[in-house]
């Protein structure tokens, strides 16, 4: 697996934020988000913008420990005016990207994960925004598409996160084990975009490969990414499942990090 360039992730934070802003512009911000039922559309936007500003504070200050929300400047927008929310999203993304670019990918900073660097946060915020833009698109029934290299990297990163969760003893992720079973993801519109996830007694591993598996999921890469991130239903008609559907459901129910 090869990561995208640091500046590519930075550009995607800006691009995906602009895409999110376009989706929610003029929409009912009080609408419930089907893929995040505890949130309204405004809650979703505030979550994304707050995450950007939190990461900005971590990277800007070269934090060596977790930064509490209350120490993050303008962590939430002032008031409920949609125009204020839009400007707050734009400003937060711009400040975060400026800090990430100034720091460079290799700058050590605090992170909750296996990689404590500014580069980790650039990638994480790019994909955080990619996935939540999908949540917004679902809410307002808007079209949604992601560039192939970004969609593939979103799947790669999610596999890394779930593996990390398993190593940390997450109560659901630890159940992703059981030798002799495997899951194959096959993007039908992007050459080489295939993943083989193999379950073992101690957990799971994955690699890019085209091999027969216990269950296979086939479809366009964007749809594959959305299903894998639980942003689109398996029965949406956008992907095809071959083999033991129960194993796919087993994975989707437990591939979490909380």
Structure write-up:
The structure is a single chain. The protein is of the alpha+beta class and 258 residues long. The chain folds into 2 domains: 6-144, Four Helix Bundle (Hemerythrin (Met), subunit A); 169-254, Nonspecific Lipid-transfer Protein, Chain A (2-Layer Sandwich), CATH 3.30.1050.10. Helix content is 47%, strand content 11%. The chain has helices spanning 6-24, 41-60, 82-103, 118-140, 148-167, 221-228, 245-254; strands spanning 181-187, 194-200, 203-207, 215-219, 240-243. A 5-stranded mixed β-sheet has the order 3-2-1-4-5. The protein is globular, with a radius of gyration of 18 Å. The mean pLDDT is 97.
Keywords:
five-stranded mixed beta sheet, alpha+beta
Write the layout of secondary structure elements.
Layout: H1 6-24, H2 41-60, H3 82-103, H4 118-140, H5 148-167, E1 181-187, E2 194-200, E3 203-207, E4 215-219, H6 221-228, E5 240-243, H7 245-254
Helix pairs in contact: 1-3, 1-4, 2-3, 2-4, 4-5, 5-6
Number of strands: 5
Quick one: overall form? globular
Mean pLDDT: 97
How do the SSEs run, as a string of H and E?
HHHHHEEEEHEH
Biggest beta-sheet profile: 5 strands, mixed
Tally the helices: what do you get? Answer: 7
* CATH class bucket of the largest domain: Mainly Alpha
- With strands numbered from the N-terminus, the spatial order across the biggest sheet is 3-2-1-4-5
Alpha-beta classification: alpha+beta
Q: How large is the radius of gyration?
A: 18 Å
Whole-number total of structural domains: 2
Topology-level CATH name of the largest domain: Four Helix Bundle (Hemerythrin (Met), subunit A)
CATH architecture of the largest domain: Up-down Bundle
Beta-strand content: 5-15%
């Amino acid at each position: 697996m090869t990561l995208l360039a640091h500046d590519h992730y930075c550009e995607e934070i800006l691009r995906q934020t602009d895409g999110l802003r376009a989706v929610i512009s003029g929409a009912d911000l009080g609408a419930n988000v089907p893929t995040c039922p505890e949130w309204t559309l405004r809650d979703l936007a505030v979550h994304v913008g707050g995450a950007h500003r939190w990461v900005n504070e971590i990277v800007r200050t070269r934090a060596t420990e977790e930064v509490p929300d209350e120490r993050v400047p303008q962590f939430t927008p002032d008031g409920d005016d949609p125009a204020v929310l839009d400007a707050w999203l734009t400003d937060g993304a711009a400040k975060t990207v400026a800090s990430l670019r100034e720091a460079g990918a290799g700058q050590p900073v605090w992170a909750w994960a296996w990689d404590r660097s500014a580069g980790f946060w650039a990638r994480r915020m790019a994909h955080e925004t990619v996935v939540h833009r999908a949540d917004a698109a679902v809410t307002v029934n808007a079209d949604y598409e992601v560039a192939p290299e970004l969609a593939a990297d979103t799947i790669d990163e999610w596999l890394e996160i779930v593996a990390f969760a398993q190593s940390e003893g997450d109560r659901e992720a630890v159940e992703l084990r059981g030798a002799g079973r495997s899951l194959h993801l096959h993007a039908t519109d992007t050459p080489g975009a295939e993943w083989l996830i193999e379950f073992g007694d101690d957990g799971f591993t994955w690699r890019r490969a085209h091999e027969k598996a216990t269950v296979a999921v086939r479809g366009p890469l964007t749809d594959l990414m959305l299903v894998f991130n639980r942003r689109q239903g398996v029965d949406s008609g956008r992907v095809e499942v071959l083999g033991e559907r129960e194993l796919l459901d087993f994975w989707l129910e437990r591939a979490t990090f909380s």
